[in-house]
Amino acid sequence: MFEPKRLHPIAVVGNTFKQLKELVIPFLVFVVFGSKGTNWDLFYLAASVLTVIAIFVLGILSWYRFTYRIENGELRIEYGIFVRKKRYIPFERIQSLDVSEGMLQRLFGLVKVKVETAGSGGMGVQDGEAVLGAITRQDADFIHEYLVSIKKGRHEFSVEKQVELLDDVLYKISAAELLILASTSGGVGVVISAVFAFIFQFEEIIPYERIFKGLEVFAANGIAIIGATVFVGFFIAWLIALIGTMLKYADFTVRKLDNDLVITRGFLEKRQFTIPLNRIQAIRISENLIRQPLGLASAYVESAGGSAASEESAKVIILPVIKKQRIPGMLGPYLQEYQLEPDFSPAPGRALGRYLLRGSAWVIPVPVVALVFFRPWGYLALLLLAAAAFWAYLQYKDAGWSLDGQQLTLRYRTIIKTTVYMRKNKIQSLSIKESHFQRKKRLASVEATVESGLGGSGGKVIDIEKRDATAVYDWYSFTPDIKK
User: Is the pTM of this model over 0.70?
Assistant: First the structure.
């Protein structure tokens, strides 16, 4: 691979489809609905055909002008149709290689490799620092092995000289876990939102007034029919989300390959993520509303690097769904510097009133209005107030913090109960805040941030003891004297 190579020719088809996909909405508007039987029909048709041909020709030229090679410890890429551009990426800067196999690549035994570097901002070739859209699996393995050899300080490398790697399977999803993951993913809202977003792209074309009038007639047929229709709609959305999640996370496997975590997943599109252990900034445990009562949770690692176009490479799920009590045993042997079973200090009892007030204040106007104008049915609005108070109590109950040597652990709840484990040397910033009302109750809030993607991530715990917040701040600020 030390001589310039081109991508597989099938990359032309992939790039063409990618460009055409971005033109679907304009095509539907101007071609299917825009002409409406006028003399412009032939013009629209000819313009569409010429556009497709132009995109395909540009795709061929772009493929022909794109070459890549390895030289002097760098991945060197040259591209550009009219203006020749060169991108040289030192292997020392490469943080990970994300390998995926779309349906098109799998038909030809190819893979797609995306290179992530420290500080890549999603503005490189094709939405990443570098993307090799269609290369052979052998070439992808060669690049990965060359990268490992550089990281290990072995700059001499040849095809015959393979790097010995320690391969250990950390986790492999079972069929039962995959079904549980898909059933409790909460993807129904995403599916419904996507449907509405797509429909309202055509608000100037679809006759919504006639549709709404039809719905009024339909509603007159009775609440039972409406309820059944809504149930069927949600069931279909749930089924779509279920199938989509199962296809996405099929054959999910986590391996420790030398000093990296390598994650592979997917049925229709196989993907592979590589996370260097030294780039892990924090561990995050999430428990959503459905999984928590079942004792289930998901584990993520926050990784430095990533890009705006690929936040998935910054926050990577490593245990999609698992019994929470099994997480320390699963991750502990591989992430030994983290204490995954800390003793939490909860929020004090006098903070409960603040949690209840903060959680219920935004709801209070609703039952007040309902009781004034809609009695006796307005009394049902009190259930909303009770639900808000119960939710605030859960937030209070889940709030906690822990210091274990060089590790800070924060536990809190928004909608999802979250526990974040952060090493002191990975924390970018830590702050304590104290409002006037907190000061009266000797309370304060603690917030810590670690590097993740282009921004930051971390956690925040509200209304803990002021002296505890001060102790956390002093722990972070303290730098031991170095005696010569």
Answer: yes
Domain boundaries, the chain: 10-164, 175-249, 253-347+399-477, 349-396
Of 118, 121, 103, 126, nearest to 10 by C-alpha is 103
Q: How far apart are CA 421 and CA 335, in angstroms?
A: 11
Asked if residue 376 has a cis previous peptide bond (ω within 30° of 0), the answer is yes
Region 3-24 average pLDDT: 82
* Integer Cα distance of 157 and 147 in angstroms: 10
Residues 407 and 395: their CA atoms lie apart, in Å, by 23
Q: At what angle do helices 223-249 and 175-183 cross, to 10 degrees?
A: 140
Closest alpha carbon to 320 in 292, 290, 289, 286: 286
Q: Is the pLDDT of residue 308 over 70?
A: no
- The count of C-alpha atoms lying within 13 angstroms of the C-alpha of 277, restricted to the half-sphere facing its C-beta, is 15
Which of 96, 170, 136, 98 lies closest to 332 in space, CA to CA? 170
73: phi > 0 → left, psi -120 to 50 → alpha, else beta; which?
A: left
**What beta strand segments (E) does 118-241 contain?**
130-136, 167-172
